[in-house]
Amino acid sequence: MLRSPSDDRWGDLLMADFRAVATVCEAVVELLRASYRPEDFNNELEFRVFTPRDFSSPMANGVSLFLYRIYPNGMNRRPSGRLGVDGRRLQTELPVELHLLLTIWGREASLQHAVAGWMMRTLEDTPLLAAGVLNAVTADVFRPDETVEVSLTELSTEDLLRIWEVLGLNVYQLSVPYIARVIHLESTLPEPTGGRAVQERALRMGVSETSAAERS
Fold it and tell me: How far apart are CA 121 and CA 53, in angstroms?
């Protein structure tokens, strides 16, 4: 999610950015659904966000999105929180990136290959998801000036096969890894006004110089 230096002008908006992860996943699926034309494939395609359980009874034809990993974004510093409705600064934001596995389903190899090429071209043509697209999925999650970048990424063959092994499936399906970044998860808690609360106290045992002298 890209931000401008003047983000605080949106500080009076009520946001619920803990929903951003789900919103981005659904927005990618919705982009594919809106771009799809049945006549291009002579087949009806489905587009859905999957959980591991869904892989045991997948769709016949279409594309599934599986969020398999969430990483902190190390290229960005943790920005300070926005101003809350009461004028207090909220706690620092958490920049993350979503690692997505888009899997192509189809009864025929030719259909799978056609859908794979179309899907990759469609996402390449729309690398940035604007706030209007994202908020159409879930309202008031992203500020009007924010975008999310969705791009191809690399996933080793070992990691890819390990994912399918964990899913418990014996048959591999053509899959393409993507990454969505940067999503700033906002806090709803204000910054502490003083020092952090003491969690524990360590007591040190020792012998004072006076006591040592008295014993001598």
Answer: 28
The answer to whether the CB of 150 falls within 8 A of the CB of 129 is: yes
User: Which residue positions in the chain have pLDDT lower than 50?
Assistant: 1-16, 198, 208, 210-212, 216
CB-CB neighbours of 187 under 10 Å: 16
Alpha carbons 77 and 91: distance in angstroms, whole number: 14
Structural domain boundaries of the chain?
7-188
Cβ proximity of 19 and 125 under 8 Å: no
**What gap in Å lies between CA 155 and CA 84, rounded to an integer?**
39
CATH 3.30.2000 fits 7-188, yes or no: yes
How much is the pTM? 0.77
Q: Are 73 and 97 in contact (CB under 8 A)?
A: yes
As a whole number of angstroms, the distance between CA 19 and CA 132 comes to 15
- Beta bridge partners of residue 128, listed in sequence order: 149
55 burial level (CB within 10 Å; 0-12, 13-18, 19+): middle
Q: Hey, what long-range contacts does 87-94 have (CB within 8 A, 24 or more apart)?
A: 88/190, 88/191, 89/190, 89/191, 90/186, 90/187, 90/188, 90/189, 90/190, 90/191, 91/187, 91/189, 91/190, 91/191, 92/187, 93/184, 93/185, 93/186, 93/187, 94/184, 94/185, 94/187
Q: Which residues contact 29 (CB under 8 A, 6 or more apart)?
A: 47, 48, 49, 63, 65
